Amino acid sequence: MTNSISEFEHSNAYFVIGSNMTEAHPIIALRLKRGARYNGAKLVVADPREITLTKYATLWLRHKPGTDAALINGLMHVIIEEGLEDKAFIEDRTENITALKKVLKKYTPAFTEKITGVPQDKIIEAARIIGTEDKVAFFYAMGITQHVMGTENVMDVANLAMLTGNVGRPSTGVNPLRGQSNVQGACDMGGLFNYYPGYQRVDLEENWKKFSESWGCDTLSRDAGLPATAMINAAVEGTIKALYVMGENPMMSDPDIGHTEKGFKNLDFLVVQDIFMTETAAMADVILPATTYAEKDGTFTNSERRVQLLRQVIDPVGKSRVDWKIIMDLSTRMGRPMTYQNTAEIMDEIASVTPIYGGISHERLEKKGLQWPCPDKNHPGTPYLHKDKFSRGKGFFYPVDYHPPAELPDPEYPFLLTTGRMLSHYHTGTMTRRSKGLNEICPEGFMEIHPKDAGSLDIEDGEMVRVSSRRGTITVKAWVTRKVPPQVVYMNFHFAESAANRLTIAALDPMSGIAEAKVCAVRIEKLQLQETAV
Amino acid sequence: MNMVDLTINDKKIIVPAGSTILEAAQSAGILIPTLCYHKHLSPYGGCRLCIVEVEGIPRLVASCTTPVAEGMVVRTDSEQIRRNRKTIVELILSNHPNDCMVCEQNGRCKLQDLAYEFGLKEIRFQGEKSHYEIENRNPMIERDYNKCILCGRCVRMCDEVQGVGAVDFSKRGFQAKIATAYDGVLDCEFCGNCIGACPVGALTGKPSRFKGRSWEARKVRTICNYCGCGCSLILHAKGQDVIRVTQVEDDNCVNQGFMCVKGKFGFEYINHKDRLKTPLIRKNGTFVEASWDEALETVVDNLARIRKEYGNNSIGGLCSAKCTNEENYLFQKFMRTVIGTNNVDHCARY
Fold first, then answer.
1. Residue A92 pLDDT greater than 90, yes or no
2. Residue B42: DSSP 8-state
3. Residue contact B279–A190, C-beta within 8 A
4. In chain A, whose CA is at the least distance from the CA of B341?
5. Does residue A151 sit at the B interface (CB-CB below 8 Å)?
6. Contact between B345 and A180 using a beta-carbon 8 Å cutoff
7. Which residue in A179, A430, A420 sits closest to A282, CA to CA?
8. What domains, with CATH codes, occur in chain A?
9. How close, in Å, is residue A50 to chain B by CA atoms?
10. For strand B3-8 and strand B11-16, is the pairing parallel, antiparallel, or unpaired?
11. Domains in chain B, ordered, with CATH?
């Protein structure tokens, strides 16, 4: 997030696209709800589903799944047409506006309505809110990123924010909501194929030299690494032979699990370090028992870039060990001794090689977390980014032209399946399904289907149905609801018995390698009597 | 900002205009007892415990709802105020079950603290008592309205913070009760913020009931392990079991002390019987328990063999959005320095 959570209660307007935040980021949603209900902020929600946030919205744009960029372009078209753009900001702080305008030209309200299904008057009304309100904050999550044009969708949100001068000030900004407790930190720490810690590119000679020296290692690879999705492909093809998986469950979280399974089965060796016998661990050759967050200390970095201290509450259960000690032991056994006494010492090393974490130490985090960039020991941290300039200098408008998802419904697979998370469960369900009350709230998976579609398929509420895509087939309970529009069905991916990711497609966004888990085509069939009787 | 001068207990205080007397007193470190006041909720003035004397006003006023005025002279601790407060607590206790010994809130109950403070050995008022059935036909929250003092904090929390409005006041007078629509089964988001707001034992979290008394638990402040909001919370552990999660009370956190259903109630997996407790090695298709030495040597041997046979880039590593920065740092350092590959990634895209 460019901005901080506490700022959002004071925004004048919000634009939320592809984020079911009352379920996936409930605490951030509290700020928006309060802003909208008590401070008169205008809330514009763009989502194909009638998510809870729409109840609090000034305006709900129900666009078709996968048409996010078209919708955003349509908004920008109106903003420019009506002269609502922030001309001073564009002039002083950005470049390439002409190219953007050229692409936007065709996105008239009528054209945009045709692609997105959102009525023209609503597009115009939303554009006016975003174009005229002083402090507008933009939010998105996996709803716009898990698409073949995921990266472009994000760039388009940035375009909209820059066009309206809503970057570099409090209570504004481009705010991706990170889904996991330390997904931000895992990226910051160089848990990425293309970056060393702190987003220092691996393909730059100076970085290679810097890390070779800091780590006292002359064998750092100069080869490009593979993103997770490509590692699975490589395992299927047989070029990746071994995987070391720490606290991940790709056999549930990956799109097109059937493909992932093929990859894992094809491995020569798989080691999984985890807290439960996950679907992935069950395929391992060696399982190393690790600990939960209650059994360790260290730091997490949240969605607003705030590095915060974890504190150990109980001892590791059984013979389990904390992850950092397991890694140290492995490294030492493989000839590169690691001898950190505690996690504070590891953070000191992180700070020494990672400029954005340069001023961070456990001691400083004792009272309250610090937001990176925090380059030195006296730096107070950075509540919002891009204050006077962007990291590259001027903000660059990257024109985005809409193109459709990889797989859309056709006569054979006539429904569009979209997936997501729900409030009471989390990711692959390994933790929440083992918490009694949470599992009681929702003990099994379900598929949301519109009454019209349910009627035409003769499906009753609560009935088990068969759902198939070109990749796989599952059976799942149907929930007949108007939360989804006709022709669109929705599932959560938390449930192994009805794993939505058996159906999803691993079509990748070429820029980031993210898969299009939010759109694929499925067929829905009523189960025959003898099948339900089993 | 307009500032207002006033005097509380002979102390000169300057506060922003629009502050209440209670807020002014708190800013000067003067404690006034309250049951219905909550810093993040609108003032309610229901419990009357925060009554104070204001010069020029003949009656006692509720300090939580009375704004300060220039030159105001306030007294918070006179004998008359103390007598009144004591009577209020007695009146509340006259319709309150005397079962502190089995109450989940024992040891952290505001009403219990007040009874202790006023040295209430017996209650002068005898009268009717409420006899409500305990409401627990929901996964998370047990509601015992016999203990409810009608402070309305849960009602305001649910409406003003959560924006749900699952409960409200119903009926009047002695029959007044907090209830769901049509007094039906509680059907809400189960954020549990009402439990955090309840000053007594009327609302308790079902997953924590009878797992341990307040004073038996070690309380450790840490960061939630679910989504990326990064909420601060307090884990309570009895022995080696995590038994309860409560909110932090200060503002040095992103969540202002508010929680969601996973943060509040999603802790039982920590001590779940399914936890992996020993290393396992697959032998002839089944997992066999192994020592750490044996397991780690198996990993080392296989990784070394594969690297030698197929090269550094035949090995990949997935680190974790659930592990700490320190662990992810070491993981990628291990992959890059020991294995010698940039094949390291995690599920940032899922």
1. yes
2. -
3. no
4. A221
5. no
6. no
7. A430
8. 5-177 (3.40.228.10), 179-225+290-378 (3.40.50.740), 234-287 (no CATH), 415-533 (2.40.40.20)
9. 16
10. antiparallel
11. 3-77 (3.10.20.740), 123-265 (3.30.70.20), 282-349 (no CATH)
Sign of CA dihedral B245, B257, B151, B140: negative
**Which of A34, A188, A193 to probe by mutation at the B interface, max B CB count within 10 Å?**
A193
* A38: its two tokens: 């008590």
pLDDT per residue as tens digits for the range B134-163: 999 999 999 999 999 999 999 999 999 999
- Is the previous residue joined to A373 through a cis bond, with omega within 30 degrees of 0? yes
Residue-wise pLDDT tens digits, A238-283: 999 999 999 999 999 999 999 999 999 999 999 999 999 999 999 9
Tens of pLDDT, residue by residue, chain B (350 residues) = 799 999 999 999 999 999 999 999 999 999 999 999 999 999 999 999 999 999 999 999 999 999 999 999 999 999 999 999 999 999 999 999 989 999 999 999 999 999 999 999 888 998 889 999 999 999 999 999 999 999 999 999 999 999 999 999 999 999 999 999 999 999 999 999 999 999 999 999 999 999 999 999 999 999 999 999 999 999 999 999 999 999 998 989 999 999 999 999 999 999 999 999 999 999 999 999 999 999 999 999 999 999 999 999 999 999 999 999 999 999 999 999 999 999 999 987 77
- Is residue A44 within 8 Å of A130, Cβ to Cβ? yes
For an interface test with B, give the residue of A253, A333, A361, A368 to mutate (most B CBs within 10 A): A333
Which pair of tokens denotes residue A500?
Answer: 């939505």
> Closest Cα partner for A495 from A457, A455, A439?
A439
Asked if B322 and A194 come within 8 Å (Cβ–Cβ), the reply is no
What distance in Å separates residue B323's CA from the closest CA in chain A? 7
In this model, does residue A232 exceed pLDDT 60? yes
**Environment class of residue A401 by beta-carbon count within 10 Å: exposed (0-12), middle (13-18) or buried (19+)?**
middle
What HEC string does A378-389 produce? CCCCCCCCCCCC
What is the rounded distance in angstroms from the CA atom of residue A189 to the CA atom of residue A357?
Answer: 10
Chain-chain contact of B324 with A299 (C-beta, under 8 angstroms): yes
Q: Which residues of B touch A211 (CB under 8 A)?
A: 336
